[in-house]
Amino acid sequence: MSKNKNENKHLTQLPKTPTGILGLDEITEGGFPTGRPTLICGDAGCGKTLMSIEFIVRGAIEFNEPGVFIAFEEKADELAVNVASLGFDLAKLQEEKKIKIDHIHIDRSEIEETGEYDLEGLFVRLGYAIDSIGARRVVLDTIENLFSGLDNQGILRAEVRRLFQFLKEKGVTAVITGERGDGKLTRQGLEEYVSDCVILLDHRIINQISTRRLRVIKYRGTLHGTNEYPFLIDKKGISVLPITTLKLNSKAQTERISSGIPTLDEMLTGKGFYKGSSILVSGTAGTGKTSIAACFAASACEQKERCLYFAFEESPAQICRNMLSINVDMQKHVDSGLLRFHASRPTIYGLEMHLVLMHNMIREFKPSVVILDPITNLVTIGSVSEVKAMLIRLIDFLQEEEITVMFTALSLNTVINEQTDEGVSSLVDAWLLVRDIEFNGERNRGLYIMKSRGMKHSNQ
Known about the structure:
- The chain contains 15 helices and 20 strands.
- By secondary structure, it is α/β, with parallel strands linked by helices.
- It folds into two domains: 10-240, P-loop containing nucleotide triphosphate hydrolases (Rossmann fold, 3-Layer(aba) Sandwich), CATH 3.40.50; 256-452, P-loop containing nucleotide triphosphate hydrolases (Rossmann fold, 3-Layer(aba) Sandwich).
- β10 and β11 (237-240) form a beta hairpin.
- The longest helix has 17 residues, at 153-169.
């Protein structure tokens, strides 16, 4: 047994080159294979060029690894303009000799006229570019243009193998992009057999909502995430959400956080909720769910804690105005920078894109408290099971980050046992039910603590 352990210590792990792309290194467990080719394939407009250029830029900026980008479609100035909105200054990086962009025009008619084709000219040009800046990363975008005039499958296969072997001999970590073919990962259907890592990008429309997804098709010599992962392209580049990698290993805190309502705190043994817990406030329309969430947010800000408020029904100005009627001044916390609103209709994105956006905003703002008001509106862009799955991922992520989250949800009088349509009541640590009580011709509001894990609480 001990002999096997000693032998395992000497096993050589596959060296990897980090991409610097948020989430992608987690899925690939470290990045792309060092000194080997990686194929990024997909349909037009799915983000292949952007992912490959970000691989080059992040390598130059974050890991001090110069990179060469060989473009067969776009010229250097066109590429620079296209990625400027993401904050990438390609011209500056070229001046500093951190990257080199070279456009190679291939005329299909010349190949057809001569009937000859080999890559010696490309090898010379590519080798010079690599040596001139000491490049450690190389991108070829796209391989279809390189072989556009070649129909002989035998020559095509041989030249592809020569190309990949040349890149390996130069010791560079290479990324090759390719257009997806009919029933194949690429049009030629050859590149995936000689690539050590193959990543498929997908851009699909579901219920008139655009969603981009990524999947690692194969990765020789290492474990990797095998599921489909949504990814977002925004002003900071690409971010991938490895939603299925979360595990139930979060810590359980004993510190408390006030609800912002003294009488409610008394119902919770006088101390409020556990920090890092999840709380659901459900009830029919007009029972004060948003008011409870606002009091919780304001109380956290009073304690100099940051709060991120996702509003799916009202604008920030509306919420701030309405809360003044119960003497809760939220605007002052917005002005102080402790409270940040993100208000949008759920239909602006799909569920997974909302989840990616929330992850990014939470990582950027680093709040102690997060509020979603109301989660009921998410049903408009997904089924009940899909919404529940999304909320499970969000709760797991927030518990891992030790962030307290409060959800509000609309419940209908016809729903059995007062449960919400989203079925989230079984997932949360604390569940508050607010309802109307009619008696003697007047209507009053009542609040019940349906459950609160790990603490005594009022049953009235």
